[in-house]
Amino acid sequence: MADQDEMKTPEADLSPDIKDWSKDQVRQWALMLDDVDCRVAEILLQQDINGASLLLLDTADLKAMGVKYGPAKLIIHARNELVKLKKEEPASSTNQPGRPCKPYPFSRYHDTYRYMESNILDITESGASDLIEPCHEYKAFINTTEDNKMSKFIAEVIRFAAACMNSRTNGTIHFGIGDKPHFIHGQVLGVVVEDKEAFANELKSAIVGYFEHKHRQTAQSCIKPPRFVGVLNKNMTSSDKCVIEVDIEPDSTICEENTYHTFSVNTKKAKKKARGKETVKTETQQSKQFFVRDGGSSRDLLAPTTFAKPMEEFNQFVDGMAQRSQLRKQAEEKHLNVIKSSTQGSRLSEMITGGTLSLDKSHFERYVIVTNKSHSIQYESLGFLVELNPTAVLDFDPESAKHGLQCHFDQQSISSVHLPEQYKITEAVEDIANKLKLTQNTSWVFCNGGIKDETPSDIDQWLMQKGASIRDVISFLCRKDVLPNKRFLVIFLLLSTVSEKMDPLVETFSTFLQELKGNEQILCICDNEKAFTSWKDLIDARCGIDISNRCIYELSFAEVNGTILSLLSKNRKSRRFLPCGGGSKVLLEKKVERSLNTLEVLCVNQCEGGNEDKLIMEENFYKGGKVSWWNFYFSEQPGSTPFIKRDKFDFIMNTVIPDLCSLRKACVLLNLMHIPGCGGTTLAMHTLWALRNRFRCAVLRDSNADFAEVVGQVVKLLMYDHGEHLPHVPVLLMIDDFDDKEKVFDLQQLIEKECAKKDIQSKSAQVILLNCMRSESAEQPETTEDAVFIGNDLSEKEQKLFEEKLVEIEKTYKNADTFYGFMIMKKNFKSEYAQGVARNNLKSFNINQKQSQLLAVLVLLNVYCKGAPLSVSLCEEFLGLQPKPYCGTIKVEEGFGKFSNLIASCSVVGKVAFQAVKMIHSSIAWHCLQELITTHKVSKADIADLLLTTDKLYESTQGKDKLLQDVHYILVKRYHSKEEGSQFSPLIQDITNETPGQEEMVLQNAWKRFEKDAVVCQLLARYYYLKKKDFPEAKVWAGRARNISKDSSYIADTSAQVIKHELKNAIANYREEPVSPEKLNMFLKMAQSAIDAFKETQSLAKKESIQRLQVKSDNCPFNISGCLGEIQVGVLVIEVLAKTPIFSSDNVRHDIMSEVLSGDVKLQDVERFDQRRNKHSPYYIIFRQFEDVLYNIRYRMKINFDLLDTFYVNLGSKFGMKDSREQVTQNELFRCFRAYRELFCKTDSAALWKGKTMHHMLQIHQARQFLEMQKADTYSGILNHLSNDISPEIMEKIARQYQFVCDPHHNPTVKDRINFIYVNVVLSHIKLQSRYVLPHQKLVDLLCQVLHQQTPLNDILPLYFIAVVLLWPQQHHPECKNLGRYISQMRNSYHTVMKEVYNGKRPIVHFFLGKKQGYGQLVHFREIKRCIVGGDEQFASMWENGKIWKENKVEKLLCRVTGQVKSDLILADTCIPDLKIEVTPVFRSELRGHAQGSKVSFIIGFTMRGPLALDIN
Description:
Blueprint: H1 23-31, H2 38-46, H3 51-56, H4 59-65, H5 69-88, E1 100-101, E2 115-116, E3 120-121, E4 135-139, H6 149-167, E5 171-175, E6 191-192, H7 196-210, H8 216-222, E7 227-232, E8 238-248, H9 252-255, E9 262-274, E10 277-289, E11 291-294, E12 297-300, H10 312-319, H11 321-334, H12 344-353, E13 366-371, H13 384-388, E14 392-395, H14 400-403, H15 405-410, E15 415-418, H16 429-435, E16 442-446, H17 459-477, E17 488-493, H18 504-516, E18 522-525, H19 529-543, E19 551-552, H20 557-565, H21 569-574, E20 577-581, E21 584-587, H22 590-595, E22 599-602, H23 614-623, H24 629-635, H25 647-661, E23 667-674, H26 680-690, E24 696-700, H27 707-719, E25 731-736, H28 741-757, E26 767-774, E27 787-790, H29 796-812, H30 820-826, H31 831-841, H32 850-864, E28 870-871, H33 872-879, E29 885-886, E30 889-890, E31 903-909, E32 913-919, H34 922-934, H35 940-949, H36 960-972, H37 986-994, H38 998-1009, H39 1014-1028, H40 1031-1044, H41 1049-1069, H42 1077-1111, H43 1121-1137, H44 1147-1157, H45 1163-1169, H46 1177-1185, H47 1187-1191, H48 1193-1210, ...
Parallel strand pairs: 1-3, 2-7, 4-5, 13-14, 13-17, 14-16, 15-16, 17-18, 18-19, 23-26, 23-27, 24-25, 25-26, 39-41
Antiparallel strand pairs: 5-8, 6-8, 7-8, 9-10, 11-12, 20-21, 22-24, 28-32, 29-30, 31-32, 33-34, 35-36, 35-40, 37-38, 37-40, 38-39, 40-41
Helix pairs in contact: 1-2, 4-5, 6-7, 12-20, 17-18, 18-19, 27-28, 31-34, 32-34, 32-35, 35-38, 37-38, 38-39, 39-40, 39-41, 40-41, 41-42, 41-43, 42-43, 43-48, 43-49, 50-52, 52-53, 53-54, 54-55, 55-56
């Protein structure tokens, strides 16, 4: 959009005074006006209009010259505005231009930086330099009317933006910055903007109109919203003007190699004659522009030119775009921020206290503050000024009393306002100090006017007008009889950047330096490096000294504030502080802390200033209560022995934590596995306490909290008070009481995603999850990289520490013998000790007494639900106690009488927080339960019945939900091992074993307590069909569960399981053979009902899975029970049919049954050829009723086998690994498949197949049966042979059979040929030298043939997966060019085929890219596993933290690929120069710290969802 304002002639310097202009200068001025045609300028020249006559012109004069009314009005308006501007300019401005200043920081919006009127931006208008440092363009924006101001703004921004985007350079266009000839180049003018929002809205709308549709989104991203930077008057007072700035940032990720044209509409009038009449017609033409930066202006390469080849320059520019884009990428990578560690927090503490590190005992008795112009957003970070209680503040902001720092200070403290003249020594020094109230209130000295009608001075006039009086102030303050010699500190608080050598602060510093004879009593504080550099250079130039070692500049003002406030003991007692790294701290506002309601934040100064009773806190802990922060705090106080360090403490602190911090994932995990009662939680909290100065530590209050809320608060804690800066310290989050590791991994992944979403970039871990999890086994589990185990066996060193601690305890407490929690550990967890404690304390137990009943309930809960509490209010109501205050807490233990030593108080946080009691130790709880059973004859069933039927326990509102939750847990929670699943919860199983029959009463009472709970109804249904074999009753309970929860696949599955088990039971109890027609009818009816029920379960499971995908935070996996159940029913049907005379076990009848159940032979045909059909007639009548079921048995079983094979082979749990916990289900699947293959994968009547053709068909039939028998008829089954230790001989036989089936004469299907390719790949990994392995090139040729065939939808996923795996380019192959398309179609197919089952799972990495050629290019998952010494847990740990890729053996196997970062993906390089392939990082957080377009190296893993990038460096 060409604009006359861009025409700048270097020789045409207009005179500052209009009346001195020549007629040529008037013409030039007219040419520069908006919307004024060049013909008007020529008219002025022809009429000899010079500057003097221009001042006399009016609209009528111009019309008389032939200038039309519109342009005439514009010329007069522009002249009047110029005259007005000249009048407003200070007389000295022409002779004394403003001082140099820096532009506002690029791409920032929240800095406090402001311009000063008439100052000169020290950066010239320029073209592209290093592409990151922005180029600049200035617009005075004053010769514009209100009508055309917005259009002028839009046109200039679009033009400049398009030029920057095409030139790939950052840029800023400034409106309100002058240029020659009227002003000095870069002169700050400012403009008045009434509606700022309108500029932002209009610009956003204009982008849509100016740019091509395909580039609009890119333009919106590159062109930032307008920024309005305030303009100060020369005397530092505020004005109503601002500079409008628009930043352009053509990020290489979004611009790529595109070019950007803009379009504008030109309107012109044309005269036409028609039938003797002259008409004026308005014509509009759309013109196309292509702007680039050319020096200090934007030029249109499509504009008309006199060159012989007008498009040559444009074409050359476009041809060079790829190189220009590459340069941009490299520039972005070079300028990527790198976090550097800082020690300035510690230095600040040192300097402001004179080395004492405490303001209570500071070396300095007084403080003097020197400061300049402040900004309102700084005030909340300047609270330390009030705490320092400065003797004097030398304030150079003339508006400080009106709406500045002094105004803010006075709202919180008292100050006496003074002018510098009041410090002049005209009488005795003591009298002056007394009048100034110098030691009573803060003396606020206004050093540049602003009060008492004192006029502020311009910077260049300040020294002459006010410098002397400020020197008087400084001389007065530095007198030894005013402030203590060497005992006061002068703090230069630079709230605005000091950029001019004439700035009053420079002179003030020089004066203080002279008066104090050095800088040891001077401290300078600013909040950014640019401000520091400018200040340091000015002081160096003025005073000749380097003040770097007396400056703090790497901390934000929030961090300065927090660090200084934390140096006062009263603040450490009343306020809370978080670490920021390097010894700095920030104040944790109460409002913010309360918003982190899912976290208990551990602050740097935790417990300081509290008044908790040490004896009570320690007694509760030693008795067995949960450790509190107070216990650690008290152990650090003088006179106390240190808190006992477990052996693993130093290992965690010195080895594990540093290792985790070095990992490049956003969120890393440390599992602290412990046996209940062995000090695991205490060790975890001890770790947090010791690291509270280096990490932002917190404990998750409730393991059942909403993870989305938790993740948001964790990241908020991480980023708190860091503003636009990157975090300096990680979050260490302790999580406790999780009973499922998968939930921990879910939380970890959500934190990863949130960090990526917030673009938190760093090359180290940002959140460490310290997962404190109970281990049910006392045996030391497998050692892994990310797990520490705490067992129930103390080392000699630990035992010695406990003995020393006991000596200290016995000196303080007379009742140390009742400190059972401590003594159990001291006795090294000997069961005899816990047994003795239980026996001695339960001697007076009587189940008829309230205390005994409540204790029994608490014991049962604690044994089966670790650490389960009872609320204090519940205990009080049950025991009939009146609440009694006791040192701020309620001493409910007294109500338990002689049992009080067995319980401890605790706090519970869930939906609500409340005080509670619990058993002191899990071991004592267990022994108490055994004592009740053996000595007092109170069974577990009795206690459970008491717990469920006593209404009084559930009347208390406080803690009721938690109690119901715990009771529900002990009734329904089952535990599964890798080998077998449990049918019921441990409590129900124990009651069944110890008091058979009583469990039914307990379960019935459970339903009465949880009437509307579907899971409890489900539990009763399971009990009746599994234990009692009472199937009618089971159906009643299953029906009740369905009525309560109609859409749950798990509840629906129970209804199906009842019918299946009824069928299974009926078949097992019927021992007659052959089966009677009546029984056959009953069995098949049951089977049909069960199959229908399982199909409904499958349908609900798929619906649930789709819904979970939409929720995204629900990672519950697909419920496969419906699929497995239908298979199991199919096996039962086969078993029943084999007992009928029609399908008895001779060979021919076996094959007939196989054909019927496959749907290949109809029952009427079997009946027709049955020689005993009359005798078998009742059977055939029954079979006909169930034809649909029977004909589909094989089909439905096969569908479900294949679905589950695809599910288990392609999907794993966390991080793309197989889930070993699913082994129980897979064992059952294997059992069912044995029955399936015995029937469907053998032909026992082969001898009856006669004739050459029949024999040939039999061969093909038997080959396919063998393949199906070996699960080699599907790609997933073939792939699984790499993991299930198949013998090389069987694999070779599979290869031979596929060679036979895929013979062209046998009409192989596309699926057959795909499977054949898979077989070769698998066999090559099992026995590479086998003669049945096709040469690699031959296999690739076969693959290419298949790729050009029509492919059924069901075969697309396996075909494109193996295509990507085999064609990954290491050598050039024509088919490689299609890899991008294959990957895209594979991903689409994956989501289509697997979307119903993949929720909560990750695609398994089947192969990695290796260093060898041919088949050796693929490295299978198990080959990586064989490189690691250790079991599955160790391998999983090393996989998760990335250390596996650093193993020497693994590095030798795998090929590292290079590529470029593109948004959330990587473009992988290949051996083909122009071919780059998109790969997805397994952990998006590994891309943090890598600029868009930056080069990275990585390992490639192949999954069904596409290639993945691992170990990105």
